[in-house]
Design a protein that fits this description.
Length: 147
């Protein structure tokens, strides 16, 4: 298979994953803001734009805050939401930082790898992408946003 076509498909998948993960991170941040300030006011705006939605509070930090708040822990869907957030975070990080294995990859089965720590690889296929899309849709719905 032509390597250019495989790289092009991976670029499209990477773009979708990183873009939708960014949207989920934003929506999660807004959900956290609404927990602390249910009504919009000046303090809510300051919290969101100067604390929550800054480079200093990473996606991992936001997930950790969500997971630690007793109110969210009591929700029926808390475990599923946490698993979905961690799945999205992990795939986003892999897409952003791992490399394409051009020798092993095929159009229907793209292999990415990392050498950080130890050699690890992931197979990107239509099933993984579809599962990712379902998790994104689930989170967007649970956090009260439409796609």
């Amino acid at each position: 298979m032509d390597k250019k076509i495989i790289r092009g498909k991976l670029d499209l998948i990477r773009g979708e994953v990183i873009s939708s993960a960014t949207r989920v991170e934003f929506v999660l941040g807004y959900r956290l803001r609404k927990y602390f300030f249910p009504k919009s006011n000046n303090k809510a705006t300051i919290l969101f734009w100067n604390v929550i939605n800054t480079p200093y509070l990473t996606f991992d930090n936001k997930i950790g805050i969500y997971e630690s708040i007793p109110y969210f822990k009591k929700l029926k869907s808390h475990t599923k939401i946490s698993k979905s957030l961690r799945f999205i975070q992990k795939l986003r990080n892999q897409m952003a930082h791992w490399q394409l294995d051009e020798k092993e990859s095929k159009l229907e089965k793209i292999i990415m790898f990392t050498l950080v720590g130890k050699y690890r690889k992931i197979t990107i296929n239509d099933n993984l992408v579809e599962n990712y899309r379902k998790e994104i849709a689930f989170l967007i719905k649970k956090f009260g946003y439409s796609r």
